[in-house]
Predict the structure.
Amino acid sequence: MMIHTRIVRVIALAALLAGCATSVPKQMESIVATQREADDAYAHGDMPLALQRYQSLTKALPKEASYWFRLGNVQFKLMQPDAAIASYQQAITLRPGYTEALYNLGIVRLRLAQAAFVQASRQNAAHDPLAERSAHFAYDIAILTNPTAAALHTDEPATATSSAQAPTSVQQRGAAQ
């Protein structure tokens, strides 16, 4: 796996520079074990454990973009959008052009925008032009972030409340890569 190879290189280089080559195997074992635990927890839906493990990995290897990316995915699934945004941005800073991180960052930001439009559509008085416009924006974002929903809906919703439901598959597809 590419991540394991990268980890080995980073740890070996750090050890050579620090002059402590004897502790490299133990550090590498610990990091590989933590990564395995994080990946397994993520795969099995144990997001609190995955969060803890990916946080440990980002502390151990703060320049490893893939750990920041996975941490962002976990934070998104745990409904921590601000933390997810910060993690994705860190991944992108470390690896400019990191397409998956850029994509997921966009999904999180769209979902936050959608939530704001849903809230605006519910808070304003009935027949308020901004409430109706907000409902349409929320609906459009739902369709944008879940193209399969477009096939299920032929017309935009007529009321603000009918567009309030966000597609659940975006969490599965969008920020779970």
User: Anything to note?
Assistant: Confidence is low (pLDDT under 50) at residues 154-176. Residues 2-63 form one domain. The longest helix spans residues 99-123.
